[in-house]
Every structure is written in C-alpha cells, then in structure tokens.
Amino acid sequence: MEKYRVLLVNDDGYQSEGLLSLRKKLLNENFEVITVTPDRNMSGTSHSLTFTRPLKIEKLEENFYYIVDGTPADCVHLGYHIILNGEKPDILISGINTGPNLGNDIFYSGTVGAAREGTMFGIPSVAFSPASSKNPDFEGMADLAIKIVKQILHKGLPEKVFLNVTFPNIKIDQIKGFLLTRQGRGAYREEIKKYISPSKEVYYWIGGEEALEEECERGTDYTAVREGYVSITPIRLDLTDYRGIEILEKLSFLSIE
After folding, report:
1. Largest CB tally within 10 Å, which of 2, 74, 179, 252?
2. Is residue 204 domain-resident?
C-alpha cells in the first residue's frame, strides 16, 4: 500500500482540537504527516507572510511536529522549503479550523490562505472548516475529511485550484452528502467593541457574531451547509473577472482623458 506524505497546517495553533483530531486520523490511516503550525492563534491573517523579522522553527515532537512563530502561510513556506527540503508532499491540508470559512470569510481566513499558498507551490491543497464554532464534532469531521483527501489523491484537482470544504454543524450520521458549491457572500454580523484601559486609553476590538445571513441562493456554500450537506468549493488562484474585462472594454473604459 502506497504511503502518502501530508503537509498539515492550520491557523489556530498547535493545540487546536480540529488539527489534533485530523492529525490522529491521518496517522491511523498510515499517512506520513508533517505537521507545521503557528505557535499561537493566527486567525484572520489571510495569506500574509512575515517579512519584517526572522522566523523560528521549534520541533514539538520527534514525529514530524513543528511550530513556527509566524503565519499559516509562513508555516507552508518553511514546511516545504526547510523541513521537507523542497520535496513536494502529496497533499497539503489546512485545518480543521475551529470556526467557519464561508462566503467572504475566505479573504480573511488564514486556513484558506495556507491552502492557497500550497497551491502556488503546485501542491494539491484543501482547507477544512466547520459551519459553526459551537460544539463542532471534530472526530466525525476528520473521518469525512479523510474521505475527501483520498478522493483528491486518487483523482487529482484542476491546475491552480484548491478546495475550501465546510462541514455542516450537525451530527455526522445526519449529513445528507457532499455538494460542489460556489462561494457565497455574507459572513458575520460585524461588531467593533470599544474598551477603555485603567489609564483611560481607548482601544477597539474588531470581531463579529457568527450568522448565516445570506439569502438562500441555490448552489452556494451557505445553502449547502444550511441544508445538511458538506460544501466543497473549488477556489482558483486567478481572481481576474474576465466578464468584467469585456464589460469595461464595451464601455471604452480606457478612453481616459
């Protein structure tokens, strides 16, 4: 039986329950798992790389488990170039995240950013997240994630495309199946909280309440998880709106005086 090599990363840090559940399942399935995670929660760092200071790699365990004092994309860089010496793994897995990465979340998500970074290196990549951070069944999600990983390994992905996978927050035995979806729109009810320190300094904390507020359009990631399906959204590296180019050309947009 062929033994596949996995580069496993996340954005929630090395103590994340979702990461640990998936890592355990992968090892039980006889995958070779190289785990490289941030040394703290780095949610919301998107696809950022650290250029302003040096980075440190620390071996957490002998069994290919490392932590980095940087972003998820930093973990991909160092995992691929340093720990694996530039030898491509068979697949890069990011997650399982502790909260959702639906709709507009993908622009902020460090989990998705890591999968995008892997794709830029030509590594088949996938990001896994629950539809809600409220009592997710990471053990069950890890079982489903393994099935998707095996599909990717056996059937491949389109060039320069990775998958953003979201599990509905219901009992695993109640999940209706898997759906290929497109990115939805809404994400959170945004909220900025104001704090005043004992020294009267004012601070602001950007956050938001989880809320599947999007209208139920058929075929979106939101609708899929609302209806009890696992959402699988293919994401391209190329963000160009080719229809937008056609529209702007018809409007003679470049006739700028």
Report:
1. 74
2. no
